[in-house]
Amino acid sequence: MTTRTIVFDSPFLLGFEHTRLLIERAAKAAAETYPPYNVEQLADDRLRITLAVAGFAPDQLHVTVENRQLIVAGRREAEGERTDTQGYLHRGIAARGFMRTFVLADGMQVEGAVLEHGLLHVDVTRPEPEAVAKRIPIRTAG
Question: What distance, in Å, lies between the first and last C-alpha atoms of the chain?
Fold first, then answer.
């Protein structure tokens, strides 16, 4: 049995539980292998995530954002519900459902998703934050 020491468990780092949870979520997401995907940087503030989802129809795919986590899920009909009567001689294309997650940094927004030729493109942007100057009033004491 191996034990893993997490640096965020240090008593000198207080209030970093959220960061630790993000790292754990990212590690879990990295362990997923299906479906394969690419991440492209289209511009300084734009990313495109492309997932290989051949065989999935748009109504079988779901893209959601929850708690700064992008979730892409696909659900196919059960094998017993197939309407065709022909059997496969070879089945090399995966027919299973999936759920692929990506942890988003603060401020990142999902702009949209497009299904094209068996590839699901999800565009993510990070808008430039507005420069906000706040004047702090000075009070006098006494």
Answer: 64
CB atoms within 10 A of CB 53: 21
CB 47 within 8 A of CB 41: yes
Q: C-alpha angle with apex 47: 110 to 64, nearest 5 degrees?
A: 25
What architecture does CATH give domain 34-80+93-125? Sandwich (2.60)
Which region, left, alpha or beta, applies to residue 55 given φ > 0 means left and ψ of -120 to 50 means alpha?
left
Q: Model's pTM, two decimal places?
A: 0.67
Q: What is the pLDDT of residues 72-119, one digit of tens each?
A: 999 987 655 555 556 878 877 766 899 999 989 888 999 999 999 999
Q: Which residues contact 35 (CB under 8 A, 6 or more apart)?
A: 51, 52, 53, 74, 94, 98, 100
